[in-house]
Amino acid sequence: MRVRNYEVDWQGVVHNPNYLRYCEAGRIEYLRHIGARVDMRTLNGDAKIVLVRNETNYVLPAVYDELLTVYTRISAIRKMSFIFEGSRSSIEWPNDV
Length: 97
Description:
The chain is an alpha+beta fold. Helices cover 22% and strands 23% of the residues.
């Protein structure tokens, strides 16, 4: 996914809350990839996936127009819950960085 203009501050650096959006997009695509149904019927049904906690380590900022790859995996499965882990990397750096 590419960083869009409304996701950055005046210096072109991504606002912190947008990383959560990138991770959510990664989780949804991961669920689709493993064959889980992701549609309004499953979102409004009895078996809901509820996000309980987020933890983010800000190592290197993403910047405007940067093309990102989001990696997602399930790192633990418990009786009533599971844990997603995600990371991102740059595919390319914009010319002006």
